Structure formats: C-alpha cells, structure tokens
Amino acid sequence: MKAEIKPYYDTNRKRLADIVPLGHPFTVYIESTRYCNFKCFYCIHSTRDIKDGEFQKLGYDIKHMDFDMYKKVLSQLKELPKGIKRIVFSGLGEPLMNPKLPEMVKLAVDSKITDRVEIITNGLLLKPEISDKLVEAGITNINISIQGISDKQYENTCGIKVDYNELVKNLTYLYNNKKNTQIYIKTIDSILKDNEEEKRFFDMFGSISDKIYIEHLVTMQQQMEDVKSVVDETKNFYGEQLDLNRKVCGQAFYFLQIGCDFDTFPCPVPGVPKSLSMGNIRESSISEIWNGQKRKNLLKIMLKMKKDTIPACKNCTCFNAINNPSENLDSEAERLLPFFE
C-alpha cells in the first residue's frame, strides 16, 4: 500500500489559545453549489424531497454560487491580512455539480491568497476530463469521501445506484495523473461492518491515494436526529476519545464558511440556519464581518461557556467531534474574553 494511514488534520499546529484573536480566518469554506447527486442517510440532503422536511425548513434554494460574486469574494479575501491557510470548496452540495468549479479553483490558485486550495467531494463526478481540469487549475488537495466498497453499499448509504468499477477506475486515473495534487481518500466506520471490509477498503484505495483513513461517523447536522442513535458521541471524527465537558467552539475563532447566498458562518457544518450568519457579503465586506460586532458577540458568548444559548448551536456535538487538542479554549476562556469586549 502506497498511502499513509493518517487522519486529515495537521498535528503540528500552534495552540489556538496563544494566537487569538485573529485578523483573518485560517480556513475558508466556499459553498460553490447546493446541488448534490447523493442523498446520504447521515446528511440533510436525504430529506430534500420531503415536503416540510428538514432540508425545506432551512429555506435554502438549491442553486450554484453566482460566479461574479464569487470573484468579489476572492478580491475581498485578498484584502485581508496574509495568513489564510486554506480555501476549501465544500458546503451543503457536491462541489463538482457546479460546472464552473475548475475555473473557480484556478481563480483561487492564481489569486495567491493561500498555498492550499482544496475540494471535499464524493468523487462520483471525477471523470478523467474533470480530474485533468482540476489538476491543470492547480488544485493542491482533493479529499474524497467513499461511501462503501460495493454497488450495494453505495445504494444503502447514498440512495442511488453507482457503477462501482467505473468509480474506482476514475479515481485510479486521477491518482496516476495527479502531478503535485495530494489525494486523501476516506470512508466512515459505520459503513464498514467488520475488519474484513476495512481491509478491502485499504486494499482498494491504498494504492491510489497519498493518505487514507477510516473516520468515525459524527453528527454534523443537528437536524438529523435519527443519525444520533447510531453515533458514538464519546469519540471524535478520528476515533479518538473526547473530552465531553468541552463548552467552547474553537472553530468559531478561526473559521469562515461562505454560503451560496453569501451569508457567512463561523463553522464548517453544512446547512446551518441563516440565523447563525455573521453578515452577508452583498451588504458588508468580509473584513467588516470578520471584525464586526456580531461576530465578536458570538465569540464572547462562546467564551462565557454559553454556547447553548445560541439556538443554531444548541446541543451541537460537532464542534467537539471535529476538533483536535490544539483548539481547546475552555481552560483559557476567562483570559481571552477581554480581547473581544
């Protein structure tokens, strides 16, 4: 096996408590589209065709991001202080559903805002032509979520039929023609039923990826109540034991998600309600939003250990499950609070 079995996070990070407040986000997620070709059981997209279901309750239109406004987003990100570590195309939809994605990637790379421009994708649309366009555009990382190791598992997980052999063939082409692009392939533990299936996963994809891992299923979207019954919430995304007493959402201090409607959110969770928006880029600049009072107020609530008083954050376990130890702010909350007064 060529790939390194390793979770996808940087273990050599500065302690977040030592560097906040930040003059810029470290990670920027850009929701290039809300269309998705899957209806995974753990995702709110599984409810999109249900009248008055959880997806419809969000009040979001299914559409692509406006391309001209996207260019405005890049120009505003470029005006922030240097230090954005990565731009990631991810959100409520499958990024490759937007036909302009390779062009969006190229513009982000050419803007030189960051050294890392990535996508998180289910990989089904990574045909050779698209893979070539992304590589030529300069994408640095392609993170692929595998939803099973057979046609049947894909149907059970995603609600659609796929040609599994064709999927593996396309990902093999990507790996063989990736140039400097790093390929991370992962699946979730709840899909693989035993050690034999885990071995098959590593055997299938370990030779066509740079890093590979079996991640732990977590409850990303709080609306998905049925998922909670099958999730072990004592473990994080990477299968490590959690500190269940954590109160402060570290992601909110370094994260910026930009949605299709250009609302801005303080976390990577797809499909968060508009009530959590810190401001809309059509009305205020990214700099004004990042340094604005609404964001500061949200961070103060976090540092006062009152996260659950924010309706969109109440009972959220994702903030804990996707963290790593360097992001834990609880013990420093009292010291950090005056920075946001």
Automatic annotation (TrEMBL):
Its EC number is 4.1.99.22. Residues 22-252 form the Radical SAM core domain. GO terms for molecular function: GTP 3',8'-cyclase activity; iron-sulfur cluster binding; metal ion binding. It is an enzyme of class 4 (lyase). Its cofactor is [4Fe-4S] cluster. InterPro entries: 4Fe4S-binding_SPASM_dom, AdoMet-like_SPASM_containing, Aldolase_TIM, Elp3/MiaA/NifB-like_rSAM, Radical_SAM_PqqE_MftC-like, rSAM, rSAM_sf. This is Cyclic pyranopterin monophosphate synthase. It comes from the Bacteria. The keyword Metal-binding applies. The keyword Methyltransferase does not apply. It comes from Clostridium saccharobutylicum. SUPFAM superfamilies: Radical SAM enzymes. PANTHER family: PQQA PEPTIDE CYCLASE, RADICAL SAM DOMAIN PROTEIN.
